[in-house]
């Protein structure tokens, strides 16, 4: 709303129609084989020798074999660390499980002995009557 001479006037909020056509070649382009992480990244399309944009141009960066080897070694180190930590956890859980199993067996054996004692006592009482 807009005020003019103390009265309120309605103001339309239409967008202005653009006089320019879409130019998709100027927006961005995908880069293959990024040397940073090996994933596709979006970058600005390069200019050709005449100074004009190349529509749909793809930026290609050369990979350094040393960087690839470093990445591979990092992946190997990270994965092996993860696997070894998981193995330690599994071994700890296995030992806990064995301890729990032994405790359970001992408790069951004690209860069996108690039941055998009660049954033998009842049998002796019945036989004496």
Short overview:
About 50% of the residues lie in helices and about 10% in strands.
What does this structure look like?
- By secondary structure, the protein is mostly helical.
- 50% of the residues lie in helices and 12% in strands.
- It contains one helix and five strands.
- A three-stranded mixed sheet has the order 4-3-5, with no helix packed on it. The chain has a two-stranded antiparallel ribbon with strand order 1-2.
- The longest helix has 64 residues.
- The radius of gyration is 40 Å and the shape is elongated.
Assembly state: single chain
Strand order of the largest sheet: 4-3-5
Secondary structure category: mainly alpha
Low-confidence stretches: none
Outline the secondary-structure elements.
Elements: E1 2-4, E2 7-9, E3 29-32, E4 41-43, E5 59-60, H1 65-128
Parallel strand pairs: 3-5
Antiparallel strand pairs: 1-2, 3-4
Keywords:
elongated; mainly alpha; 1 helix; three-stranded mixed sheet; 12% strand; two-stranded antiparallel ribbon; 129 residues
């Amino acid at each position: 709303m807009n005020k003019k001479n103390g009265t309120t006037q309605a103001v339309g909020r239409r967008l202005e129609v653009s006089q320019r056509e879409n130019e998709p070649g100027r927006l961005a382009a995908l880069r293959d084989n990024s040397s940073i992480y090996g994933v596709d990244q979006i970058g600005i399309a390069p200019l050709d020798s005449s100074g004009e944009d190349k529509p749909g141009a793809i930026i290609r960066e050369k990979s350094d074999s040393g960087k690839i080897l470093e990445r591979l070694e990092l992946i190997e180190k990270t994965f092996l660390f993860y696997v070894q930590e998981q193995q330690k956890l599994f071994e700890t859980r296995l030992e806990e499980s064995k301890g729990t199993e032994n405790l359970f067996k001992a408790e069951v054996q004690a209860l069996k002995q108690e039941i055998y004692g009660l049954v033998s006592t009842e049998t002796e009482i019945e036989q004496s009557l």
